[in-house]
Structure formats: C-alpha cells, structure tokens
Design goal:
Length: about 500
C-alpha cells in the first residue's frame, strides 16, 4: 500500500559529511590528533581553553582541505577567515566552535556516483569547510555522572555539504562511499566509520512529484555506516510520507537513528536550536592561498580513482566493471599498476587480482597490505602461465599457495622443485612412450587395426607415469608419431 502512495512522492536528501583529517597535531594547537589515546591524555591548555591561550593555524590542514576540493572539482577560496559558532555544550570547552561560516575553503564542485542500474550522476556540492571537532561525552551505564574526554576536541575536520540533489537512499550511500574512497586516495582521512573518523548527517525531506518547493527537512545525526544511512533515509522518507498522507505536518527537527530498531527519534526541534551568533574569530589571522601555494598542492595530488579507472579502461582495455573493482581501494589499484609495469599483461593481471588473489584475501580477511607476495613475484608467476611454462591449474592450485607461504622463493625454481614444469623435453617423453608401447603390444596392434581411440589409453598411462606436468599436445603428437613408426604386424 505504502509503495503505491510513495510513488507520488520524491525523496530529497542532502548530506553533511565530517571527515577527520590525518594530521599529527590538532587544527589550532600542537596536541596530538591521533585516535585511541587514554582519555584526556592529548589535552594541552589550548585544547582545554585556558584563559589567555590563543589558537594557531595548522598549515597542513589547509592543504588537505584544498586537496579534497580539487578532487571534487570545487572552487578554492583564496581568502578565508574562521568564524566562531557559539553554543554551550559540556564537551566544547571554549563555549564556541571554530569553523568557517562565510568563507568555506571550497565552494561548489561535485561527487560522481554510478547507481546499480548503471546511471551516472554528479551530485553537486554546496561547500567544504574546515572546523574543529568537539570532545566526547561518555555516559557509563548505571552511573549518574557523565564523563568527558577532550582528546577529540580540536581534531581537524572538513565538512562536505552536498546540495539537496540526492533522491534515493542508495544514492545517499553511494555519495558517502565515493567520499570515503576519495579521502582515502588522498590520504587525508582514514575513512574509518566505526571509529568516527568519517561521520554523516542526512537531511531528508519529501515532496509530491512535480511540486516546485522543497518540503520541510529533518536532519538525522551522526550515522556511522553506509547501511545505516540507507536504512535511516528509507525509514525517514516513509515516516514523512505517512505524516503527509494523514494530513499531519512534518516538523523541522533533528532526529537520531537507532540502529537496533531501524527507526529515527526526535532529539530537538529547530525552534529549540541555538542562534549560533557567528562572527569572525579575532584570534586567528585570515588564510591566504597564493597561486604558488595552490600550484604546489596541485603538484602533490595523487592519481584519483576515476583517473585510474579511465586509464584501466582505455589504456589497459579492461571492462568498466573490472576497472571499477580494481580502483575500489587505492592500495589494490597501485598493486595492480605494479603488476602491469612488471609484465605488461593487463588482462591476465586483472584476472588474477579478481580471481586467486581476491579469494585468498577474502579467505584470510587480508587487506592488500597483508598480502605478502610482492608484485614482482606475482607478475613473474602470471608471465610464466601466459608463456605456458606452467599450466594455469598448477599455478593457481600449487605454486601460488606455496609462494604465499614462502614469498621470497624464486618462481621458476620453485616450479621445478615442485615438479610443476611440463615435460616438454622430447627425449624424456620419447623414453616414456617407448616404454609404454613395449609394455602393451596388443594395444599397439589394436591401434594399427584401426582402433584409433586407444590413443587415449596410452595418454592415460603417460599421465600416470610422468610425475611432472606433461605438455599434452606435444606428448600426443609424439605418441602418434611413435605409433606410426612401430610396424603394424
Ligand atoms: P541549515 O541552514 O538548516 O543548516 P542548509 O541550507 O545549510 O540548512 O543545508 C544543510 C543541508 O541540508 C545541506 O546538505 C542541504 O543540501 C540539505 N537540505 C537543505 N534543504 C533541504 C531539504 N528541503 N530537504 C533535504 N535536504 C535539504
Ligand atoms: Mg547549514
């Protein structure tokens, strides 16, 4: 029923994604910005907002944000100021958060996604701005007191804000995935959603299709997985449609998603929200990005997933799906690039990455960085198979597992030791064939009487007797030749 009703509506979503930047120190002081330290072990006087302390700009933070802007084709603001966003919260020691309100470091740009049904779409960005993270309130069970850990206070963040241009929960999850891929490629954020280094708020509204004005939006806070974003958007859209269908209004509010029951719950309405009274922070000087600095950052940009994907398709002649799978993770793409540089066998390398390498990684839950075989060794193995020095089966089933255990071993040497090299030495083959023909004179006679199928039986014998792999095509030719040389009487 609801499906039919839902058809009348369009879902509208805008995301606000926070990514913690991987700098060693915090955004406005030299306290460590790393995750997982003992509570309150990374808190100097500036983090704790002691009176008289002053913030100081971390330069690398600016470069990281610019990199993200360039990766999203955004316009970089050359002159920026920081603003104070005033609100009271126990884990915000200063009583305000330093952010960028009027001069976000990047404006515009887009994130490209491709939906399951193959549609490509650029989701426009409104802005990317810099700000500091807040501390963490901890509410231990069965305790009255709230504990405060200020380690996270002052950790640098970029906030990526999309335009309300996302229209399905799948698209919302895809945008977030794409953002995670980009920050990981740029190495500016580890993208670890469980640890909260990448967090997502989703703004959701619905409107009747064809209706020009956007509906009232609800903001769902802090989701920490792709799946939860998708579930939350789905739930929220249905909730709003149901309200509207019943003639009830949607109230602009902030809601939280409960991943146990899959529902959203109201936290506060917009009316209760603070007026943040933004104003320029007088303690920080404006940031000027000169042409030279921007150029320097441009030079430091690594290859991005889409560039590599295009390269794999056009230069390496791989399919779109292969190229997409190979560029999902930067380390995998770089490993694949090294394979290709070593042996030039693009298609074969792709098959190995998607086949044996992937299955062994899945089996052991290995990241590509846990995979101990060097690209040079794997490239050599693949080349030996391509040149038919080793059969594909022997390589996948025996040599590859052996090399994983002994990654330093030499490929051809090991193949020889494991008896995997096909016998293509005609001398050796002829010896075996002569032996067999001598042992089965009656069968030889049958052959000469016209029972040509008997060749299969001789081949079987040959397989049984040769411990090593046999080059069957060659063996077959030699066998028939030898048979024709024996007289038929
Ligand atoms: P606010 O002033 O309430 O923070 P903004 O205009 O800054 O709202 O937008 C914040 C986020 O909400 C952006 O990601 C934007 O795309 C999204 N958004 C704005 N209006 C809507 C709407 N009607 N429906 C869904 N998302 C919206
Ligand atoms: Mg806003």
């Amino acid at each position: 029923m609801i499906d039919r009703v839902a058809e009348k509506y369009e879902i509208v979503v805008g995301l606000e994604v926070h990514a913690q930047l991987l700098t060693r120190s915090k955004i406005f002081n030299s306290d460590p910005a790393s995750y997982g330290g003992a509570p309150n072990s990374q808190v100097g006087v500036i983090t704790l907002a002691h009176p008289g302390t002053l913030p100081k700009q971390n330069k690398l933070v600016v470069e990281y944000a610019v990199k993200m802007g360039l990766a999203c084709h955004a316009t970089i603001s050359r002159h920026q100021i920081f603003d104070r966003k005033n609100y009271f919260y126990p884990d915000l020691p200063k009583g305000y958060q330093i952010t960028q309100d009027r001069t976000p470091i990047c404006r515009g740009g887009y994130i490209s996604i491709k939906t399951k049904d193959g549609k490509e779409k650029n989701i426009l960005l409104n802005r990317i701005h810099l700000e500091e993270d807040a501390g963490k309130s901890i509410h231990p069970e069965n305790e009255e007191d709230t504990l405060l850990d200020f380690n996270r206070a002052g950790v640098p963040l970029i906030e990526i804000v999309t335009e309300p241009e996302i229209h399905t929960s799948e698209e919302a999850a895809l945008v977030l995935m794409e953002i995670r891929k980009l920050v990981r490629y740029l190495e500016i954020c580890d993208g670890n959603m469980e640890e909260g280094s990448l967090r997502c708020d989703a703004n959701v509204s619905v409107r009747q299709k064809g209706h020009p004005a956007l509906g009232k939006k609800v903001e769902i806070k802090n989701m920490n997985s792709f799946k939860n974003v998708q579930r939350a958007v789905d739930y929220e859209a249905i909730r709003q449609i149901t309200l509207l269908e019943n003639g009830d209004p949607v109230i602009s509010e902030t809601r939280t998603f409960n991943m146990q029951d899959g529902k959203t719950y109201g936290m506060r309405t917009k009316e209760e929200l603070n007026d943040y009274r933004y104003f320029p922070d007088p303690d920080l000087s404006p940031v000027e990005i000169s042409d030279a600095w921007l150029h320097q950052i441009q030079l430091l940009m690594p290859a991005l997933p889409n560039d590599l994907k295009e390269k794999f398709i056009h230069q390496y002649q791989l399919s779109e799906n292969e190229a997409l799978a190979l560029t999902e993770e930067k380390e995998v793409a770089l490993y694949f690039e090294k394979l290709c540089a070593a042996n030039g066998l693009f298609k074969e390398n792709s098959n190995w990455m998607m086949g044996p390498v992937k299955s062994v990684r899945n089996q052991h839950k290995w990241l590509i960085t846990d995979f101990r075989l060097s690209p040079a060794t794997l490239a050599e193995l693949i080349r030996c198979v391509a040149e038919k020095k080793i059969s594909h089966t022997a390589a996948v089933q025996q040599l590859f597992p052996y090399l994983l255990k002994f990654p330093q071993a030499d490929v051809m040497q090991t193949a020889k030791e494991l008896n995997l090299l096909p016998v293509n030495d005609t001398g050796e083959l002829d010896k075996l064939i002569a032996e067999i023909l001598k042992e089965f004179p009656l069968k030889v006679e049958e052959y000469h009487k016209g029972k040509k199928g008997i060749v299969a039986m001789f081949m079987g014998e040959l397989k049984k007797r040769s411990q090593a792999q046999v080059d069957y095509k060659l063996a077959n030719d030699r066998l028939i030749m030898k048979l024709s040389q024996t007289d038929g009487r």
